[in-house]
Amino acid sequence: MVSGALDQSRVESPETEKSVPRRFGLAAWLLVALQTMLMLGATVLYPPFQEPDEVSHIDYVIAHREGEWLDDIGQRHFQSGVLKARSEVPNTAVQAHIGSKPVPARSARESFDALGTAPSKSPFPNQMVQHPPLYYGLAAGFSYLLPNFSHQRFDVQIFWLRLLSVLLLAPVPLLIYGAALRATKSRNIGLVAAVIPLAIPSYLRTGASVTNDSLLTLLTVAMAALLVRIAWGDRTRRTAVLLGLAWGAALLTKGFALALPPAIVLAYLVGAHGTLRNRLRMSWSGMLLSGAIGFAIGGWWWIRNVVLYGTVQPDGFATLSDSVRQLGFGRDHVGGTDLDFFVRFMKLLARRIWGSLGLIDQPSLPALVLFPMTVLLVACIVAGVLAGVPRWRGTLAASGWTVGRAVSLILPALLTLSVMYAGSRSTYLKGHALGGVQARYLVPAVLGIVICAAVGLDRVAGRWRRWLPLAALAASLTFVAASAYVVLDVEMSSGGPDRVRRLKDALHFVANWAPFPTAVTIALLALTIGLAGATCVVFARAAMRDTREPTSARTAAGDPVS
Question: For residues 24 and 501, is the Cβ–Cβ distance under 8 A?
Answer without folding.
Answer: no
